[in-house]
Amino acid sequence: MSDQTIKLDSEITIRNIQPVFAQLSELFTQTELLHIDASQLSRVDTAGAQLLHLFSKTCDARSLKVDWLGCQADLLANLKELGVILPQLQVSTLEEDPQ
Hints:
Blueprint (H helix, E strand, L loop, with lengths): L1 E6 L3 E2 L4 H11 L3 E7 L5 E2 L1 H16 L3 E5 L3 H9 L18
Parallel strand pairs: 1-3, 2-4, 3-5
Helix pairs in contact: 1-2
Protein name: STAS domain-containing protein
Pfam family, one: STAS_2
InterPro entries: MlaB-like_STAS, STAS_dom, STAS_dom_sf
């Protein structure tokens, strides 16, 4: 098994959830360490939030380590509005000094 990185698009919604689901599901049998590039992901709807929640819980259950790369504050705010908090997701950019 090896590390693998996938890059997510700017949104995960009901309109594009099937290919994202297939892409993420495929990872469960192929790797031990997953790198998810979420640097472009800024919007999820309820279906997208549920998918990310399910993915996170499944990785935890299978002891798979997920390294979320480039998470944006907009994504975390969007998920929070939908009632989903994923502890693994952290904003990876430094906060700017307020002036």
